[in-house]
Amino acid sequence: MSKNQTPINYIEFRSTDLKETKRFYQQAFGWVFTDYGDGYTAFKESGVEGGFELTHEPIVNGVLVVLHHHNLEEIKNKIIQAGGSISQEIFSFPGGSRFQFLDPSGNELAVWCEA
Hints:
By secondary structure, this protein is of the alpha+beta class.
């Protein structure tokens, strides 16, 4: 895969109860979890890596598809030029940085890169 492509790299869900969410997915599917503080847990052994973010709000669009790109500013500009809008500016997290955007239909996705 070329560096110019932007593959789906990670899928992020929301959860109102991380303990119960981990129990369910581990018991039902055998997923393995790694906690990152009290508000986030990542999973693997599922076919694609992802995570669950704790929320206290009603879950409307529970899945956040996360793309990977080697240059956040470059892909952010392409998204804007193509008609997308930025819903969360670039921010850092352990291991990298990312931003979130809305496509023209209102679907929210994210793009990340390594630190």
